[in-house]
Amino acid sequence: MPMEVLPGPAGYIPTPAAFEGVELPAPGKALLYGKIVDEEVAMREAAKAMLTRRNPTIFPGPLVLWGWNAGAMEKAKAVLELAMEIPNCRIIPMPDYRPKYPKIDPEAEINPNHPNLTILHNKIEACIFVGVHCHYANLSLRMIRAGTNCFTIALCAEMGHEDAMVSLRDVHAEEIRRFRDVLVQVREELGIKWEPKLPPENPSLPKEEYQTLSVLDYGEYSYLLIPRRGEHVTESE
Amino acid sequence: MPEQKVVDADYLLLEAPRERKFITGAQAMAEAVKRANVDIAIAYPITPQSEVMHLVGDIWAQGYLKDYYRAEEEYGAMSAIAGAVRGGARAFSATSGPGLLRGLEAIASWPGHRIPAVLGVLTRVVNAPLSIQPDNVEISYLLNCGMVVLHAENQQDVFDFTLASFVISEKVDVYIPIAVCTEGFFVTHAKGYVNMTPEDMKLPPRDPYKAPVPPTDCEIPPARIQRDAPVQKSNFMSYLIHAVWQQEIWASNIRAMKYIYKYLGGPIEVVNPEAEVFIVASGCAAAQGREAVRYAQLEGLNVGLVKVKSIRPFPEKEIREVLSKAKAIIVPEHNIVGWLAKEVKATIPNNDIVIGGPRVYGGMTLPVELIMEKVYQALGIKKEKKVVV
Question: Whole-model pTM?
Answer without folding.
Answer: 0.93
